[in-house]
Amino acid sequence: MASTPDDVREFISTAQAAKQLGLSLGAVQQMVESGTLAGWKTAGGHRRIRQDSVDALLARARRPGGAPRNSSGRVRVLVVEDDRLLQGVYRQNFSTWALPMDVRFIDHGLDALVEVGREPPDLLVADLRIPGIDGFEMIRRLRDNPLASDVAIVVVSALSEKDIAAAGGLPQDVTVYRKPIPFHELRGYIQALIAQHLRNRRPA
């Protein structure tokens, strides 16, 4: 077993890491367990996380000169939807679009936060009624997370405007579509996002 580091300033607590990353304690714990963050446990069972591994994650959001996070020209899309039938509907429609996009599906709000911490997508498409933490809390944490400050967010929900307002509302920069999923509008949104990425890739 590795000895306790002499310079404890190189290590921070789970709570400190969570505050810096804008994530929940549970999300940070999962990131340590998965190896996304480097850490160790004290004799008392408390986690200590390497500050440099947290800094490395934060650096993803600090791109010199505003360079785009994704330089491949393909748009990364993360869909947070726990209904497997709707996941299939998304896949079927996406497969017909022939757009330069890579799609991942997650059915749990906490897992989505962990995934964003590992590799922020260009676009998050989410329902508001999802397991773990609901979409409202997930989006609030994402907007407080420096790693996800420029992730585009689209909500697809059966909730009415009144229902959403009664639940605390959503940030003004979140686009809201009503179910059933308006794939024509969603495709147009993604096409605009792709065009923006292509403009960002052009040399000055």
Describe the protein.
Mean pLDDT is 82; it is low at 1-7 and 63-68. The strands form two sheets. This protein has a five-stranded parallel β-sheet. It has a three-stranded antiparallel β-sheet with strand order 1-3-2. Helix content is 41%, strand content 18%. Helix 2 (25-34) packs across helix 5 (109-118) and helix 5 runs parallel beside helix 6. It folds into two domains: 8-59, Orthogonal Bundle (Multidrug-efflux Transporter Regulator, Chain: A, Domain 2); 64-201, Response regulator (Rossmann fold, 3-Layer(aba) Sandwich). It is of the alpha/beta class. The relative contact order is 0.14. The protein has helices at 14-21, 25-34, 51-59, 84-95, 109-118, 135-144, 161-166, 183-201, and strands at residues 11-13, 39-41, 47-50, 75-80, 101-106, 123-126, 152-157, 175-178. It contains eight helices and eight strands; from the N terminus they run E-H-H-E-E-H-E-H-E-H-E-H-E-H-E-H.
CA-based shape: globular
- What is the total number of structural domains? 2
Strand order of the largest sheet: 5-4-6-7-8
* Beta-strand segment tally: 8
Fourth-tier CATH superfamily name of the largest domain: Response regulator
Radius of gyration: 19 Å
Average pLDDT over all residues: 82
**Which stretches are low in confidence, meaning pLDDT under 50 for 5 or more residues running?**
1-7, 63-68
User: Could you give the distance between the termini?
Assistant: 52 Å
User: Into which percent range does the helicity of residues fall?
Assistant: 40-55%
